[in-house]
Amino acid sequence: MGTTPILVLGATGSAGRRVAAHLRTLGVPVRPASRHGATRFDWHDRGTWEPALRGAGRMFLMAPDGIPVDPDLAGLAADLGVGHIVLLSSRAIETMGDQRLIEAEDTVKKCGAAWTVLRVDWFDQNFDEGPFRGAVLAGELAVPVGDCRQGFVDLDDVGAVAARVLTEDGHTDRTYELTGPQALSFAEACAVIEDVTGRPMTFHGSEDAYRVAQAAAGRPEESVERELASYAALRALGDTEPLDTVPRLTGHRARTFREYVTDAATGPDWPRP
């Protein structure tokens, strides 16, 4: 790939920084972009788009939660010679009615550049770096998925896959689904956290428990009810079947949830109880 850099959007975030790290390990020039980095990129400031994109050969694209992928951005990337866009998406978006990600995938596929979509399951790091951290620290988590098993996947493995897809031939115009090596229910995942860390964890998988938790957080009832409809659709899918995408594309086995928890327990995000 020579000296043409790969642009990584959201390079200070949980996913982007891991993608950038894996690209550097492969010896590839990286242009990390974020709102406050040396290469500025702000979804709400169009003036930052062209300077970030110009001269990049490929791009890792992840839009923060709630922000759509603007077709103007994808079109500008293609016009400026970005030849391959790798989009981080999520599994079961049609089932859950995630219109934002459905449209993001459609936008990237139609922009004129080659594309790859990574559809990932729940991130392991949701528990220490993401939305479940507060619940872990409080010892109580509510997610209305019942006892359905999920394919929790480690973001380090996601970063490794993204780096391979961005630097190897044969991955364009394809969608890859990524899971971890085993399927766990949220109750089982919480039990692993409790076992490894000694931190008490109680899981509630009912809709009523989710309503109570979200009301306590001040969430609007209308938004919560929409989310409950999406979760009901996810429950109807049943247990996730673990896939071999990570080892097949990276050449190494995917990290287990217990291995993730063991590492996270020594990090700064989970102070000892």
Measured by DSSP, the beta-strand proportion falls in 5-15%
Can you say what the CATH homologous superfamily is?
A: NAD(P)-binding Rossmann-like Domain
Major beta sheet, strand line-up: 3-2-1-4-5-6-8
Give unreliable regions as ranges. none
| Total of helices | 12
The helix/strand series, from N terminus to C terminus, equals EHEEHEHEHHEHEHEHEHHHH
**Count of DSSP E strands?**
9
Mean model confidence by pLDDT: 96
| CATH topology descriptor | Rossmann fold
Detailed description of the structure:
The strands form two sheets. Strands 3-2-1-4-5-6-8 form a seven-stranded parallel sheet, with helices on both faces. The chain has a two-stranded parallel ribbon with strand order 7-9. The protein starts with 5 loop residues before the first strand and ends in a 9-residue tail after the last helix. It has 273 residues and is an alpha/beta fold. The protein has a single domain (6-184, 238-266), classed as Rossmann fold, CATH 3.40.50.720. Helix 3 links the parallel strand 4 and strand 5 (84-90). It is built from twelve helices and nine strands.
Furnish the topology, listing elements before pairings.
Layout: E1 6-9, H1 14-25, E2 30-34, E3 39-40, H2 49-53, E4 58-61, H3 71-79, E5 84-90, H4 93-96, H5 99-110, E6 114-120, H6 133-138, E7 140-142, H7 155-167, E8 174-178, H8 186-197, E9 202-204, H9 207-216, H10 221-237, H11 245-250, H12 257-264
Parallel strand pairs: 1-2, 1-4, 2-3, 4-5, 5-6, 6-8, 7-9
Helix pairs in contact: 1-7, 8-12, 9-10
